[in-house]
Specification:
74% of the residues lie in helices and 0% in strands. It is mostly helical. Helix 3 runs antiparallel to helix 4. 11% of the residues are buried. The chain has one domain. The longest helix is centred in the middle third of the chain and has 20 residues.
C-alpha cells in the first residue's frame, strides 16, 4: 500500500467526516465533544437555542446554514434528549 491509498476503514472514516460536514457543518465528534457532560435539561435548552438560531438564519436568507443548524439540533435531540425513551 502506498501512502496515497486508504484502507477500507480510513475511507469509511473520511466519507463519514465528509457527510457530517455537509449535514452539520462540523463533525459529529465535534458535536459530541461540545455536549460533554451536559444533562438532559441542558440539552433541551441547547436544542431550543439552536432552533432560535435557525429562525434568525432563515430571516437572513442563510438557508444552508439554517439547514445545518436544524440538523445539529436534531442530532442533540435524538442522541441526548430522547436516547433513553
Amino acid at each position: 500500500m502506498t501512502t496515497l491509498e486508504l484502507t477500507a476503514e480510513q475511507k469509511k472514516q473520511f466519507e463519514q467526516k465528509e457527510w457530517d460536514l455537509q449535514c452539520y457543518g462540523c463533525t459529529s465528534q465535534a458535536l459530541r465533544t461540545s455536549l460533554n457532560g451536559a444533562d438532559k435539561d441542558e440539552c433541551i435548552m441547547i436544542v431550543a437555542g439552536m432552533m432560535s438560531d435557525a429562525q434568525e438564519e432563515l430571516e437572513r436568507d442563510l438557508n444552508e446554514t439554517a439547514r445545518q443548524t436544524l440538523n445539529r439540533a436534531k442530532f442533540v435531540l435524538f442522541n441526548y434528549v430522547m436516547k433513553d425513551e
